[in-house]
Design a protein that fits this description.
The complex is a heterodimer of chains A (about 160) and B (about 120). Chain A is about 35% helix and about 25% strand. Chain A is an alpha/beta fold. Chain B is α/β, with parallel strands linked by helices and about 120 residues long. Helix content of chain B is about 45%, strand content about 15%. Chain B is globular and about 40 Å long. Chain B has a four-stranded parallel β-sheet, with helices on both faces. The chains are: A alpha/beta (about 160), B alpha/beta (about 120). At the A-B interface, helix 3 of A face helix 2 and helix 3 of B.
Chain lengths: ~160, ~120
């Protein structure tokens, strides 16, 4: 499978993704699934500035995943698929095969409490993630490949 | 910063912005021209709030560490809202030391000058 990381990170494309994960995984493409960014040329241009020329940055809407996900997975280039929130990643998991989801950065918002310094979850967030695990998707939190993954059960 | 004079906001990862502002003030003797904003512990909305709060209502130049990442995106989004706010990336000490002595310039000119001064300071020994 060419998609080597399915990551939820509210900062979307940033240094931890492009450098921290991108370099050790040797990625050739990032697929950013976000309806807001996919609908804004200005936002897309901004994110393109954050990615080196050798990495393709593909913008997709949630509705694109069912039709295009198999193609992304079949592409030989190691790829990171990125969403900014749990609901979008859940939609991705329902639209294409996903074995493991990485929680890489979900920061404080009203209603959320700290589970790890880089993961804040509301109870509803937790329920969505637990549902994904019941559906067979392993969920772990890990900001960088040099740190240890933390199982979802430890975040409850 | 709301007295209408040009000011600078350094937006950078971790403790970098605070260190750059402190050293600029220590070397130049000019305090109150620069403010530091860190992305530590912030999601995208929180960084934007911090940057927006530091910019205030007056003209400003936003100095960002890298031309990518959460600091850059926040600065660009705030800069997009304001015709009197400009963004310069690759912040370094020489550009800040020049900036604090050029407060009379309009933001566009100041940002161009800062980018030039910062680039001039990068040399191969």
């Amino acid at each position: 499978m060419a998609i080597v990381l399915f990551r939820v990170d509210d900062r979307l494309v940033h240094g931890q993704v492009v450098i921290g994960w991108g370099r050790p995984l040797g990625i050739g493409r990032i697929v950013l699934v976000d309806d807001g960014v996919a609908g804004s040329d200005w936002e897309q241009e901004l994110y393109r500035m954050a990615v080196p020329a050798e990495i393709e940055l593909r913008f997709a809407r949630v509705a694109d995943v069912a039709a295009e996900g198999a193609g992304w997975a079949a592409d030989p280039r190691p790829t990171i698929l990125l969403t900014g929130d749990i609901a979008t990643m859940a939609a991705v998991c329902h639209a294409m095969p996903v074995g493991r989801v990485n929680l890489g950065g979900l920061h404080h918002k009203p209603g959320r409490s700290e589970r790890l310094p880089f993961v804040f979850l509301a109870e509803d967030d937790l329920r969505q993630l637990q549902q994904l695990e019941r559906e067979g998707v392993e969920v772990t939190a890990q900001d960088l490949p040099t740190s240890s993954p933390v199982a979802l059960g430890a975040l409850a | 910063m709301s007295d209408g004079s040009l000011h600078g906001v350094v937006v950078a990862h971790g403790e970098l912005a605070a260190a750059l502002v402190a050293e600029t003030e220590r070397i130049s003797g000019q305090a109150g021209v620069l403010q530091a904003v860190s992305n530590a512990g912030c999601g995208p909305e929180q960084i934007e709030e911090r940057v927006r709060g530091a910019v205030g209502t007056g003209p400003a130049v936003l100095f960002v560490d890298m031309p990518c990442g959460s600091c850059f995106f926040a600065a660009m989004r705030v800069g997009r809202e304001r015709s009197d706010v400009r963004v310069v990336t690759g912040v370094n000490l020489p550009m800040l030391l020049d900036f604090v002595n050029q407060k009379a310039l309009p933001p566009e000119e100041s940002a161009g000058r800062a980018a030039g001064k910062g680039a001039e300071a990068i040399r191969k020994g």
